[in-house]
Amino acid sequence: MTTAFATTIFPSAPKVHEADLPTWRLLPAIMNSSLSIWPNFAFDILVNKRTTLGVTSILVNDPEGVRHFLISNSANYRRPPSIRRVAVPLGGSGLFMAEGAEWRRQRKLMAPTFTPSSISVLVPHFQEAARHLLQGVEGKPRVNLSRAFQDTALEAVLRALFSMPDHQAREQLSSLVRSYVEGAGRPGLFDGFATSEESFGFVLGKRKRFQAKWFAAIAGIIARRKAEPKLAGHHDLLDLLVELKDAETGEILSDNEIRDQSATMIFAGSETTARLMFWATYLLALDKDEQRRLHDEIAAFPPDRVETLDDLANWPRLRNVLLEALRLYPPLPHIVRQANGPDTISGMSVADNDQIWASAWVMHRHRKFWQNPTAFMPDRFAGKSAPWVQMPAYVPFGVGPRICIGLHFALSEAQIVLAHLLTRYQISQVGTRPVMPVGRVTVEPDHEPLFRLDRI
Ligand code: HEM
């Protein structure tokens, strides 16, 4: 018991406050990090309501309550303007932003593109992105893996979408998105208090200008790809999007719809997966024993042998590490909805326009649902084939009909990329400064640590 405790890793997390923060402290704290605002009791209770400057937020930890507002009564809830204001410039009217009947139409059309068998077709793209990462780090004594994973995740999604190996075009998209996420696209107080997508119009000009450039760049790539002769034996998501046909009406996607769905996949799929790979690597650098076990597991089935998603079953430990990284550092830390009308969730009354939060950050560290919630214990996922279904408090990909459509994409990409790194290197952090998670759009590291890669 003592030995097990002595070797258990408790990775870094921001301070939990004794009590709810007063408004004057809450507002600056939330601007800095949405992970640094939580009082101790949030990790014990099932539901809690708070009104700040006229905005009522209800935190729902109760998995039944979460299922109520995201599944059984989801028609009463929509994405709030704060999220739409930031995400529409990135994804237009693609799947992430669509609501109601339009969302149902898009989801039905897109679903076959993201099944495990469709994702299997993308394995060569993930392999290429991983090999490119290896080339990039080769011979470097110290590597900024946070940056490297961002480049790799973007490369993986662009290869999967457009078979796009062109480094320069990727760089252009990458710097566009980065400047948006770190600048005009960073949610601010005006977004938090906006009652509509158009409120506080003076903050929206830069976002509109970004959208014009971003959409033009993606439309240009699609036009060029469509004009090129199709290579035999080459598969990507663009081929599938172009061929999609509504089963009832026979309608195909317009050019603008293909652009918006592609833009959505790039923004929803790259930063999130990059964060997953980063936090999993950070945890493995803290837990050398687990890293050693992974080296052995991967040596028994080297990544070059992976051809389909079924092959990934050879690495159960690696998968559990990724699932545990998603629990401790969920890349999208909160799911937020706004009520269209009155309701009751887990006994708490909901009024028009109340904001309802299902926070993966809080639920994943909740003392009622997890043993040793703040410890890194990948084995808690052993034997759980779909924990997002089997473990009701595990919500890294969301819940219900709007659960992340790209979850197989993300997990298989992360497994392949990390397996390539781990097959070649032992990974350690340079120095001992803990890396603190910061909640912005995704859960970011507070600084970009350097890692030492020692050839095995
Ligand atoms: C580790 C990586 C990822 C995480 C943690 C993640 C997380 C999530 C979460 C929590 C949601 C639900 C949001 C809500 O209900 O408000 C979501 C939705 C979505 N994700 Fe992911 N995601 C990841 C990777 C991806 C990838 C790789 C893609 C595509 C290539 C993708 C595409 C989408 C889309 C299109 C939606 C909206 C689905 C809908 O509303 O029907 N995601 N994701």
At a glance:
The protein is of the alpha+beta class and 456 residues long. The chain is 48% helix and 11% strand. The strands form four sheets. It has a five-stranded mixed β-sheet with strand order 1-2-8-5-3. Strands 4-12-9 form a three-stranded antiparallel β-sheet.
Structure description:
By secondary structure, the protein is of the alpha+beta class. It has a single domain, classed as Cytochrome p450. 48% of the residues lie in helices and 11% in strands. The chain has 18 helices and twelve strands. It has helices spanning 2-7, 23-32, 63-72, 81-91, 100-110, 116-120, 123-137, 145-162, 167-182, 189-193, 205-227, 237-243, 255-286, 288-300, 316-328, 360-363, 387-390, 407-424, and strands at 47-52, 55-60, 77-78, 142-143, 334-339, 343-345, 348-350, 355-359, 425-429, 437-439, 443-445, 451-455. The protein has a five-stranded mixed β-sheet. Strand 10 and strand 11 form a beta hairpin. Helix 11 crosses helix 13 (255-286). The two termini are 32 Å apart. Protoporphyrin IX containing FE binds at residues 95-96, 107, 157, 264-265, 268-269, 272-273, 276, 331-332, 335, 396-398, 402, 404-406, 409-410.
